[in-house]
Write a structure and sequence with these properties.
alpha/beta, Arc Repressor Mutant, subunit A, D-Maltodextrin-Binding Protein, domain 2, 3 domains, seven-stranded mixed sheet, two-stranded antiparallel ribbon, 22% strand
């Protein structure tokens, strides 16, 4: 039995978006084409990989087993293609990313990029998304990974995942309690989303810790000192997700995008790095964590 990589790419997109419709947009196919691919994949495996629940789709146990293999197969395929496509590239590229994305995404992205582009130098700048978007548009950096929002301007959307309230099992504030917060400094988009949601819900809060360092924020949360906001893929073992059942309002989805400098529209080096970023984020899985962990259904 030989599995079809195109079918597996659509399968991963459905698993990550929770929807055949959104997955079809991700893989640039019609919904009917994606549905046909999944029927053929299930026929080939002799197992069901999805269960429909209203407008969303949930992985079966066999689907969860397949997901890890599918991600690894796509990553290996992408690495092989990139190795042959990019081997002769030389030069330098200036990449911008918020610090939290640098901690989550860059180790894999830069390792894969360096293997297939050993003669390219990468310089990384860490700043908030709004600042990075401005840097890219002015030509101060070549490419930026940003959290998409109205004040970052247009960007190529490469990943979507939910934002979540996180704490430790030792700190679950009661509904009338003041919520101690650990957040990035302004103008962090996640910080703004958290404060707006709490204000709209009438939930009292106090910012106890502010840091640009995602490791410091996570350590504060894991120590039981504060509540914070993280994207689903950034949740660490030992963290607990807080939901509306715990008195915390829903948060918006997090859209991650790429912004390219107008001066680098036709740069092969920038194109190659952008491909590696898109491939790494497409293959990135998200952990579950404790009570209220994300089930794959959009808010």
């Amino acid at each position: 039995m030989i599995l079809d990589l195109d079918q597996l790419r659509s399968f991963v997109a459905i698993a990550e978006t929770g929807s055949f419709t959104r997955a079809a947009d991700e893989v640039h196919k019609t919904q009917s084409a994606v549905s046909m691919q999944m029927r053929r994949l299930e026929d080939r495996l002799g197992r069901a990989v999805f269960v429909r629940e209203g407008r969303t789709s949930r992985l079966t146990s066999d689907g969860e087993k397949l997901l890890g293999f599918a991600r690894r197969m796509m990553r290996l395929n992408d690495d092989a293609v990139a190795a042959f496509a990019d081997d002769d590239l030389t030069g330098a590229v200036r990449l911008g990313t918020p610090a939290d994305y640098a901690a989550r995404f860059l180790p894999d992205v830069l390792a894969r990029f360096a293997r297939s582009n050993p003669h390219v130098e990468v310089t990384v700048t860490c700043e908030p998304s709004v600042t990075l978007s401005r840097f890219a548009r002015s030509g101060d950096i070549d490419l930026a990974i940003v959290t998409m929002a109205s004040d970052t301007g247009p960007a190529e959307n490469i990943r979507r995942e939910p934002l979540m309230w996180v704490t430790s099992p030792g700190l679950i504030p009661e509904p009338n309690e003041v919520v101690p917060l650990a957040l990035d400094r302004a103008p962090c988009i996640w910080r703004g989303a958290a404060l707006e949601a709490l204000a709209a819900a009438g939930r009292p809060y106090r910012i106890r810790y502010t840091s640009m360092n995602p490791t410091a924020i996570s350590a504060t949360v894991l120590s039981g000192l504060a509540v914070s906001v993280l994207a689903e893929s950034a949740i660490q073992p030992g963290m607990q997700v807080l939901t509306e059942r715990d008195g915390f309002p829903p948060l918006p989805m997090c859209d991650i995008g790429l912004v390219r400098s107008p001066e680098q529209r036709s740069s092969p080096v920038v194109d190659a790095l952008a491909r590696h970023i898109v491939g790494s984020l497409a293959n990135l899985g998200g952990p579950s964590a404790g009570r209220g962990a994300w089930s794959g259904k959009p808010y």
